[in-house]
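Q: what does this look like with adenosine-5'-diphosphate bound?
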Amino acid sequence: MTKKGLFICIEGLDGSGKTTHAHKLVRNLNEKGIDAIYTTEPSRGELGTFIRGTILEGKKRVPRVVEAVLFAADRVEHLEKDVKPAIEEGKVVVSDRCVYSSLAYQGAAGLDLEWIEKINSFALPADYAIYIDVPPEVVVQRIRRKKSVMERLETQREVQKVYLKFVNNGQLISIDGDRKKSEVEQGILSMVMEFLENHRTS
Ligand SMILES: Nc1ncnc2c1ncn2[C@@H]1O[C@H](COP(=O)(O)OP(=O)(O)O)[C@@H](O)[C@H]1O
Ligand SMILES: [Mg+2]
């Protein structure tokens, strides 16, 4: 591999398996002797912790625009503090969500995609971004949260629509995630290994 590391992002609906497979990917790469680390958005920093604990938990309602700006601000901090230094050290950084999550979720909530892209223009683009494709009907069964299944299903359908736009324009590479975990795990590993091979030789 080249001296500099790489930024790999795992995207998908809630319950599609991002956290499961981001961790498995890191472990599988490490087993092959590749220095890879796991990270996540929202970050573990102050802003990310606020977003997780307060906004995502529903303890505080803020206007959609404020929410979008907070996610973008946390992203910049996370990239500067955690991701870029690791990439400089030559590591492969596997991120559980990245900018596409903002586009998909805030876009599904009705904000203009171009505006979301604009406020995220400081974000480091992923070198390789994977979309774990699982139908909304399947993810709602996997997560079974408090909210009514219908409500969540509708939201997940809207979010999926935006993700699929980025699959169709080639920014996200899709993998069928509605299979046994071991199959998805091997699929993701093969895709990433192929990408790393091509990257090394290009
Ligand atoms: N391929 C799969 N088949 C069945 N269940 C899965 C699969 N991948 C993940 N899961 C399960 O679905 C749930 C959500 O997975 P998780 O990795 O937390 O998703 P996300 O981080 O995308 O929300 C977990 O209980 C996980 O074990
Ligand atoms: Mg997760």
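Residues 12, 14-20, 142, 177, 179, 181, 184 surround adenosine-5'-diphosphate (ligand 1) (CB under 6 Å). The two ends are 10 Å apart (CA to CA).
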